[in-house]
């Protein structure tokens, strides 16, 4: 049956088609975390160190185990991908070579990790190992059997390896697989990537003895290195001359002051580029970078808040309720009283007032709340506290805490039911 309504709907232009867009991004995805440039800049010394550590693989010898340490955003994963790509593309590589990559976030045990790796190797999905149900010995048997079918050399890259609680079991079995006869055709090496510089110290003595890893430490980027990283990505991500030199220098300077995090710098330029595109601007300027910095700090603070211990989140919820209920200054004693009320609701023991004051200081440092010293008429001092973000944003980050304690009547209209 002919439907004139559908025809009219198809003829109406999309709201997206009516957008007028500035020529800002040439390839916006070049600013994403997962983008790996063809060349890595600002890390020449670490690239050379990494290449030397994998020289046994290139020569067809037994590989060394390599562990990379450094804060987030300092190039550990990017350099790993680049070095392994260089190894694969070498015309004179003297072995068959395969790398297995896995991000260990969300993987709690060696058992789960081994299943994930085994399933990467099993060719048919119908033969995949289920997440539970097999004895550990069976899981490792399948894993080593599949690994041995590769032949040559295999490197297992374990990003965020410190997330696996009992990683000792996996490390012990894999580092001794050759000597125990579990592997005869494949030479196996491990690459561990972690932000926890004490990770290796927490391993058992048996594991440390068999691991004998080479350690590469990635320091934070300095402003000059960040400027190189940013300039390279800008050339790919934006059209020519869109991002001003001042914007690049300012973003790099901000990054060097914030743990030398390249991801942060790339995020700043991406956010500023979005602002320019949405507002019909022709350039990404220093002013837009400053605006992007404000947005980035807000989102980072709220993300950090969501991951804080429950006692600290209860303090923040108490402050949010007090701000919406009262328009007067909120003192430390008022905040502590509301906090203890909430702990009673959920049957928790409150921390001491002294410990709570430590919480206020930490939350101030994280830019979640603002604490100010005031003076009373007698010359004494006291502190007042206020949220640095809107109550709606705070409650969204505290959704689990709000659900556990219950929605206070002062914030009912701000909470999604």
From TrEMBL:
Residues 316-398 form the Cdc6 C-terminal domain. ATP binds at residues 74-78, 221, 233. One of its GO terms (molecular function) is ATP hydrolysis activity. Residues 62-222 form the AAA+ ATPase domain. Keywords: ATP-binding, Cell cycle, Cell division, DNA replication, Nucleotide-binding. GO terms for biological process: cell division; DNA replication. SUPFAM superfamilies: P-loop containing nucleoside triphosphate hydrolases (SSF52540), Winged helix' DNA-binding domain (SSF46785). InterPro entries: AAA+_ATPase, AAA_22, Cdc6_C, Cdc6_lid, ORC1/CDC6, Orc1/Cdc6_arc, P-loop_NTPase, WH-like_DNA-bd_sf. HAMAP family: ORC1_type_DNA_replic_protein (MF_01407). Involved in regulation of DNA replication. NCBIfam families: orc1/cdc6 family replication initiation protein (TIGR02928). Belongs to the CDC6/cdc18 family. This is ORC1-type DNA replication protein. It comes from Halococcus saccharolyticus DSM 5350. The lineage of its organism: Archaea, Methanobacteriati, Methanobacteriota, Stenosarchaea group, Halobacteria.
């Amino acid at each position: 049956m002919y439907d004139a309504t559908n025809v009219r709907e198809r003829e109406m232009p999309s709201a997206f088609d009516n957008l007028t867009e500035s020529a800002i991004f040439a390839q916006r995805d070049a600013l994403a975390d997962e983008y790996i440039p063809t060349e890595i800049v600002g890390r020449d010394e670490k690239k050379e160190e990494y290449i030397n550590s994998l020289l046994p693989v290139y020569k067809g010898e037994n590989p060394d185990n390599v562990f990379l340490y450094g804060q987030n955003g300092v190039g550990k994963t990017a350099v790993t991908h680049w070095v392994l790509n260089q190894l694969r593309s070498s015309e004179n590589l003297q072995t068959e070579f395969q790398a297995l990559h896995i991000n260990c976030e969300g993987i709690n045990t060696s058992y789960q990790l081994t299943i994930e790796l085994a399933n990467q190797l099993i060719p048919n999905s119908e033969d995949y190992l289920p997440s539970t149900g097999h004895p550990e010995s069976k899981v490792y048997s399948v894993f080593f059997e599949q690994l041995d079918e590769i032949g040559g050399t295999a490197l297992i890259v374990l990003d965020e390896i410190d997330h696996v609680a009992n990683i000792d079991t996996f490390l012990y079995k894999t580092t001794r697989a050759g000597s125990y006869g579990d592997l005869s055709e494949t030479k196996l090496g491990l690459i561990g990537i972690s932000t926890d510089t004490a990770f290796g110290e927490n391993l058992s003595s048996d594991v440390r003895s068999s691991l004998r890893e080479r350690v590469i430490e990635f320091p934070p980027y300095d402003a000059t290195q960040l400027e190189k990283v940013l300039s390279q990505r800008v050339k790919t991500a934006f059209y020519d001359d869109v991002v001003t030199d001042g914007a690049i220098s300012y973003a790099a300077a901000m990054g060097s002051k914030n743990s030398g995090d390249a991801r942060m710098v790339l995020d700043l330029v991406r956010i500023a580029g979005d602002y320019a595109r949405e507002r019909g601007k022709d350039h990404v300027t220093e002013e837009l970078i400053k605006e992007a910095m404000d947005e980035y700090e807000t989102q980072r603070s709220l993300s950090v808040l969501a991951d804080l211990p429950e006692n600290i989140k209860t303090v923040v919820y108490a402050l949010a309720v007090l701000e919406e209920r009262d328009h007067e200054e909120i003192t430390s004693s008022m905040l502590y009283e509301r906090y203890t009320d909430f702990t009673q609701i959920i049957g928790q023991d409150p921390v001491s007032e002294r410990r709570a004051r430590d919480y206020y200081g930490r939350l101030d440092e994280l830019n979640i709340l603002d604490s100010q010293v005031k003076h009373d008429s007698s010359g004494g001092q006291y502190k007042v506290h206020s949220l640095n973000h809107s109550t709606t944003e705070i409650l969204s980050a505290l959704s689990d805490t709000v659900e556990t304690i219950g929605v206070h009547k002062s914030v009912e209209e701000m909470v999604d039911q």
